[in-house]
Specification:
single chain; 200 residues; mainly beta; 8-stranded antiparallel beta sheet; two-stranded antiparallel ribbon; 12 strands; globular
């Protein structure tokens, strides 16, 4: 189960945050890992830093996820966790080395071997990007913990170029419902931004 809620940031909280040390906002990709909290850097295929993703252990289990991104195309964009901690542009798909493209090195969705799309461990709420290219989203999920993400090969948060249909294609629109590609990825399109969660 995944809960979403609007991200409200009172002016006082913003003012206080502005006074905090900016060490976590350095231009490297090092994990700000302290006491169950982790900050990772979101980059586009050109390697430019376009945002951050904060992960915190949630009370009662699971993970609080907060993304603040910019310079994205307007609209609803698919947002997932992929199973390998690699964000390489123009890379090969580990399952099909003949297929290359941006961030394919991150493999498929986390948990794609256990269920169809919509129910993958790595399926997340979509990002809504405004006309200014900005997206802010905060939610809590019990599908994974930070330790789950930091397994032996790590994982990667991914923003796609298009919306995610969550494989929600009824039989009345397509004989037999969604096809294999839709069940695998939700027809979300190219991978346009990626953030690595390093293994421990």
């Amino acid at each position: 189960m995944t809960r979403t809620r609007p991200l409200l940031r009172p002016l006082a909280a913003l003012a206080t945050a502005a006074l905090l040390p900016l060490a976590a906002c350095s231009d490297d990709d090092s994990d700000g890992d302290t006491d169950g909290d982790l900050e990772i850097t979101l980059r586009d295929a050109a390697g430019d830093r376009i945002g951050t993703i904060d992960l915190d252990d949630a009370d009662g289990g699971g993970t609080e996820v907060s993304i603040d991104a910019r310079d994205l195309p307007e609209g609803h964009l698919a947002f997932h966790v992929h199973g390998i901690g690699a964000c390489e542009p123009d890379s090969a798909d580990p399952e099909d080395p003949s297929s290359t493209g941006d961030f394919l090195s991150a493999g498929g969705h986390l948990g794609s071997d256990a269920s169809d799309h919509g129910d993958h461990t790595g399926d997340l709420p979509s990002l809504h990007v405004g006309s200014d290219g900005r997206a802010i989203l905060e939610f809590t999920t019990d599908r994974f913990t930070i330790d789950d993400l930091r397994d032996s090969d790590g994982s990667a948060f991914m923003v796609h170029a298009g919306p995610d249909n969550f494989a929600n294609i009824p039989d009345r629109y397509a004989d037999g419902g969604p096809d294999e590609e839709t069940r695998g990825s939700g027809d979300a399109g190219d991978r346009i931004a990626c953030a690595v969660v390093e293994p421990r």
